[in-house]
Write a structure and sequence with these properties.
The chain is 68% helix and 0% strand. It is mainly α. α4 runs antiparallel to α5. The chain is elongated. The protein starts with a helix and ends with a helix. 12% of the residues are buried.
């Protein structure tokens, strides 16, 4: 599941609607909405994000947060290490092979490390 899929599921549950009802209302197939929620589809289009926000009648701040979550919800990430040293490419490949074996605690540790790099840049 992607962060966007999880957010949509929470919104649906809060409103008390099924995937099928929501899918029909926003003009997509129930299979597509299910695949989107479960992370088997790529990042949603801006048009779809607007339809989701409109469907749930969410305020601007919450819609903006949903759009940001969608931006980090592509389940098929490509890391471009061209022009970087070989250690960067090796690390990216190692991470790609190991990602499914990392515990949630390890992911949180990586997130903390990455947050520290944001303050350095």
């Amino acid at each position: 599941m992607t962060p966007f899929g999880e957010a949509v599921r929470r919104l649906r549950e809060r409103k008390g609607v099924s995937q099928k009802d929501m899918a029909i209302a926003i003009g997509v197939s129930p299979a597509y909405l299910s695949a989107l929620e479960h992370g088997r589809r790529g990042k949603p289009s801006f048009d779809l994000l607007q339809r989701v926000a409109g469907y749930f009648n969410i305020i601007w701040d919450e819609a903006e947060e949903l759009f940001m979550i969608a931006g980090s919800s592509d389940p098929r990430v490509v890391l471009d290490t061209s022009g970087l040293g070989p250690e960067y490419t090796a690390f990216a490949n190692h991470l790609a092979r190991a990602i499914r074996t990392l515990s949630p605690a390890m992911i949180r540790e990586f997130e903390e490390i990455l947050k520290k790099t944001e303050t350095v840049e």
